[in-house]
Design brief:
By secondary structure, this protein is α/β, with parallel strands linked by helices. It has a domain at about 100-225: Diaminopimelate Epimerase, Chain A, domain 1. The strands form 4 sheets. Strands 8, 14, 15, 16, 17, 18, 19, 20 and 21 form a 9-stranded mixed sheet that branches. It has a 6-stranded mixed sheet with strand order 3-2-7-22-23-24. The longest helix is centred in the middle third of the chain and has 18 residues, at about 365-385. The chain starts with a helix and ends with a helix.
Length: about 575
């Protein structure tokens, strides 16, 4: 009954804030929700009221969460009623780290993620190239040479014969190295005389000729000659991404590479086709541009916000460019690569923070995490105390000291559990047991009091939240060689995982009072799942489907109507 009384009071409050001409209509419908979900297993992620049976929505806000009886009292002739039939309802998933446009583009690109051999890799590229007009670039790909035996890096000689008329620049799934064919290298002006750049590497054969593999900053040689898609092409990519996100129950995303694509999202929103809330993050060097505008913190509306800045401290483990204190086991002469941004990192973080902007830095190796935590600590002392919510993206390889510092400094660990079950197949070749112990240390971070925000890094990993939850809870590697979990002491519960994926991610973007839990007054973003992930065998979580996705109080995906199961 308390929930019903609160709902009525909330509606009255909303009515009183409306223009005079609208008050009468709104007041006459004060007991009629626009949308109601009944007969559900509602897990709110709100500690004040963790479970319920039903939800009522008015406009784009939740106005009541309670029993079936309480919510049915708010159902009128115009209320759209969804009978959940006992199924699980959760807050919409908020992906704290992905690359939205790249993900959308990957949906229509050659898919090399699960190519099991060099031969299959080449065959897929050949088939894809055969359908393209002459001169069209072949991009994305997301290949993983760790799927091969032996796990050798691909070369331009492998793909040149099947792509004579199409420049190719296909990235490894981590995005920190890519393979170019000879045509792409020629267009980019890369040959044996081209010098390596700071924070990057041109991989060469024994004679000093480029193999076609470019790592991190060296990839810019090719990126700068790739034609920019037209605005309409970008709109198509963004629409594909938002539709795909809706089908997986992802209602909010934090786009780490939004850059100049914010206008694309604006237009998609104007056309009424944006189904995903976006926090659009720009490159850290852009801090000066934002400062000139006088911006003091992230701004926008509930669908599209800007004001976050992302930088890079290092590369990735898979590309042997993550930055460590000690050398790689399989590359004893290398400790990885510090990003080309590191020489100016402190200055940029200091000035961007002084301007009031939120900062998030990619750091994977233990040395990279150490350096960024030091910079964050120094900047906080110099700029003074405030609610700044510094973030480290990935926080992949930590030690006990680093874990304690995350908690002490209140730095948000923005992490992607899927990488655990992917990297766990081969990471032992790169790192010793001591360093592996702190790999994606979810349990240790939570126990230390650190804040977790979960995402996927899509298209580096699957956008499917069920795979993320499965990974964090089971830590079973994709090759099924670790049935009890890889580094099992770092497993966390389903409850902890979902909370990091909803409320934790909302907190990471200063939106915990707006979304992240199914609470009265918050945005009506939620999903209905086919199975109860809290009660089934955790191994089965990866098979659970999204039946319905609601964003802003509207159904944006319905499996029955959209061809799902």
């Amino acid at each position: 009954m308390k929930g019903l009384i609160f709902a009525i009071l909330l509606i009255l409050l909303i009515c009183c804030s409306l223009p005079f001409g609208f008050k009468t209509t709104a007041f006459s419908q004060k007991f009629m929700a626009d949308l109601a979900v009944i007969n559900a297993k509602v897990r709110t992620m709100d500690d004040a009221k963790p479970q319920a049976e039903a939800i009522a929505v008015w406009g784009n806000k939740i106005v009541a969460v309670g029993s079936n009886e309480e919510i049915k009292a708010l159902i009128g002739d115009k209320t759209k009623v969804i009978d959940a039939k006992g199924r699980l309802v959760l807050p919409g998933f908020n992906d704290s780290h992905l690359h939205f446009m790249e993900g959308g583009a990957s949906l229509s690109s050659v898919d090399l993620r699960d190519a099991k051999s060099p031969e299959e890799f080449v065959r897929r590229i050949k088939e894809f190239a055969s359908k393209l007009p002459k001169g069209r670039w072949i991009l994305n790909g997301n290949w993983d040479h760790e799927n091969w035996n032996p796990s050798i890096l691909p070369t331009k000689e492998m793909i040149d014969p099947v792509t004579p008329d199409n420049p190719v620049f296909i990235n490894r799934l981590d995005g920190h190295m890519a393979l170019a064919n000879s045509l792409a290298l020629k267009l980019a002006g890369v040959d044996r005389n081209t010098k390596d750049v700071e924070g990057g590497e041109i991989v060469r054969d024994k004679d000093g000729n480029p193999t076609g593999i470019l790592k991190d900053a060296a990839m810019n040689y090719v990126y700068r000659v790739i034609p920019e898609p037209t605005f309409e092409e970008k709109l198509e990519i963004a629409e594909a991404a938002t539709n795909y996100a809706a089908s997986l129950g992802v209602t909010s995303v934090q786009d780490m590479s939004a850059g100049t694509d914010i206008g694309v999202y604006q237009e998609l929103l104007r056309r009424g086709k944006l189904k995903t809330r976006i926090y659009a993050v720009s490159p850290l060097p852009d801090w000066e541009r934002w400062k000139r505008t006088g911006v003091h913190y992230a701004f926008g509306d509930s669908m599209l916000r800007v004001g976050g800045l992302k930088g890079f401290a290092d590369g990735s483990l898979g590309s042997t460019t993550a930055w460590f204190f000690e050398p790689y086991l399989d590359a004893p002469n290398s400790v990885g690569l510090a990003s080309d941004e590191m020489p100016k990192m402190y200055e940029r973080v200091r000035e961007a923070d002084k301007a009031g902007l939120q900062i998030m830095i990619h750091a994977i190796g233990d040395r990279a995490n150490d350096e960024i935590l030091k910079i964050y600590e120094r900047v906080e002392k110099e700029n003074g105390a405030r609610d700044r919510r510094f973030r480290i993206e990935h926080a992949q390889h930590l030690n006990e000291d680093l874990i304690k510092r995350f908690a002490k400094q209140k730095v948000i660990a923005s992490m992607q559990p899927y990488h655990v079950i992917d990297d766990g197949r081969w990471a032992w070749k790169r790192l010793d047991e001591k360093r592996l112990k702190g790999t994606y240390a979810f349990r240790s971070l939570l126990d230390a009091g650190a804040i977790l925000a979960f995402g996927t890094d899509w298209p580096v990993a699957s956008l499917n939240p069920m795979m993320t939850i499965y990974a964090a809870v089971t830590r079973r590697t994709l090759d099924d060689k670790n049935p009890n979990g890889w580094i099992p002491e770092q497993k966390i519960t389903v409850e902890e995982t979902v909370k990091a994926y909803t409320l934790g991610s909302a907190y990471a973007e200063f939106q915990e009072n707006v979304k992240g839990t199914l609470s009265v007054g918050k945005l009506a973003d939620f999903v209905i799942l086919s199975d109860d992930i809290f009660s089934i065998n955790p191994i089965e979580i990866r098979n659970v489907k999204v039946l319905m996705t609601i964003v802003d109080g509207k159904i944006v995906y319905n499996a029955e109507k959209n061809g799902g199961k």
